[in-house]
Amino acid sequence: MTEQVSTKPTHNNPLGEDVLKQVFTDARTYNDFEDREIPEDVLRQLYDVVKMGPTSANSSPARFLFITSDEGKAKLKPLLMEGNQGKTMAASATVVVAWDTEFYDKIPQLMPHNPGARDWFTAPEATLDNGKRNATLQGGYLILAARALGLDTGAMSGFDNAALDAAFFADNPEMKTWKSDFLINLGFGTTTNLFGRLPRLSFDEAAKIV
Fold first, then answer.
1. What's the rounded Cα separation, in Å, for the pair 37 and 186?
2. What is d(CA 57, CA 64) in angstroms, rounded to the nearest whole number?
3. Which of 166, 154, 167 has its CA nearest to residue 86?
4. pLDDT at position 1, please?
5. Which among 122, 83, 69, 94 is positioned nearest to 180, based on CA atoms?
6. 27-188, which class in CATH?
7. Residue in 23, 172, 22 with CA at minimum distance from that of residue 98
8. Is the Cβ–Cβ distance between 190 and 33 less than 8 Å?
9. Is the pLDDT reported for residue 4 higher than 90?
10. Residue ranges of domains in the chain
């Protein structure tokens, strides 16, 4: 077992209203972006924040492909639905949120005090169920982390998953077990095609206390 922490590393103080506005209440899904690059060190910082989010048994099945080059965008464009092409080409980066179908092989590295936990995830149903669920969860962390770091986001489906996997993953030995889930455009959003906040369900419609 890992050494127990004796001092609580976090605090129970609510974050300020400005933080909540930037990450949640004022944030939007952006459909157009400024012509600005995101420095590589910011993308690396983004991942370093995302990787700290919890997953089952610390399994961390998500894999992220950051498409920033003209060559990469040209390869991606024909795989998108027509309505998603313009905003994706305008984005500073497009993240392919994927999951590794053999993510369990990293469990001994990620849970060194219990390397046998690998076997919890090797049955096909457990691989699919836990891999996709936790990778999607990590994709959600990426949206929130990007907003916290001052980036705007636009998550979407609307692309040919099989064709994307074939184009970007199949021939790369390091990515051949990756399967795409959804995309997140990153950048500095503009008000072009930016829509007002849509309604949300009230607490009583979507939640209960028992």
1. 10
2. 20
3. 154
4. 61
5. 94
6. alpha beta
7. 172
8. yes
9. no
10. 27-188
